[in-house]
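Hi support team,

I've been running sequence recovery on a batch of backbones for a student project. Most finish fine, but this one hangs at about 90% for roughly twenty minutes before it completes. I'm not sure whether the input is malformed or the queue is just slow. I've pasted the structure tokens below so you can try to reproduce it. Let me know if you need the job ID as well.

Thanks,
M.K.
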């Protein structure tokens, strides 16, 4: 039994050629036995951190999914921030309240796009939320030139607060997209892609 173990371990030592002179060396050798050159180049680089990073890296920007994400964010934002307060007068999401609503709305938008889209889709919903953010801030701050929507009347805050809250909302879009992708990938693909 012990002799077989020794034989097995000997068999596992693979012979590789030196990158400098071509002399035969074992994989366990740090330096070439013939020329003394480093053997490290030929050892396989096993980087789990790089693999994990790749998993959440997007392959490319999809215009189609950017448009779908746009549609999702416009519909959700329009429904919650514009239509809902118009339909129910009690719900007056002006100013601060309107802006704070964009955070869960855009998060949901990112989540939905992440969940339904094939592959990794993070950038598209974020870009969509960023584009939607501008008219949303304008609408909640001003109304549309005081003809549609009332803008901020009671719950006022300075313009830069709108920008900060919009940035938080866009950030939450990314978190939502990640959450959607995670659910889509499932627990069994946690170790392999
Ligand atoms: Zn060598």
């Amino acid at each position: 039994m012990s002799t077989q173990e020794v034989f097995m371990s000997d068999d596992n030592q693979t012979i590789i050629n030196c990158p400098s002179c071509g002399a035969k060396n074992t994989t366990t050798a740090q330096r070439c036995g013939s020329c003394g050159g480093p053997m490290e180049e030929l050892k396989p680089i096993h980087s789990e951190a790089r693999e994990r990073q790749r998993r959440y890296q997007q392959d490319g920007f999809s215009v189609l999914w950017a448009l779908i994400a746009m549609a999702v964010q416009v519909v959700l934002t329009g429904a919650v921030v514009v239509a809902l307060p118009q339909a129910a007068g009690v719900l007056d999401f002006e100013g601060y309240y309107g802006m704070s609503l964009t955070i869960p709305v855009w998060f949901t938008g990112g989540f939905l796009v992440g969940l339904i889209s094939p592959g990794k889709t993070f950038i598209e919903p974020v870009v969509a939320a960023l584009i939607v953010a501008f008219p949303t801030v304008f609408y909640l701050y001003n109304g549309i030139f005081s003809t549609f929507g009332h803008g901020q009347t009671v719950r006022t805050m300075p313009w830069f607060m709108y920008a900060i809250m919009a940035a938080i909302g866009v950030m939450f879009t990314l978190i939502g997209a990640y959450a959607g992708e995670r659910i889509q990938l499932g627990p069994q693909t946690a170790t392999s892609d």
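--
Follow-up from support: It reproduced on our side and the slowdown came from queue contention, not your input. The first strand starts at residue 15 and ends at 17. No action needed from you.
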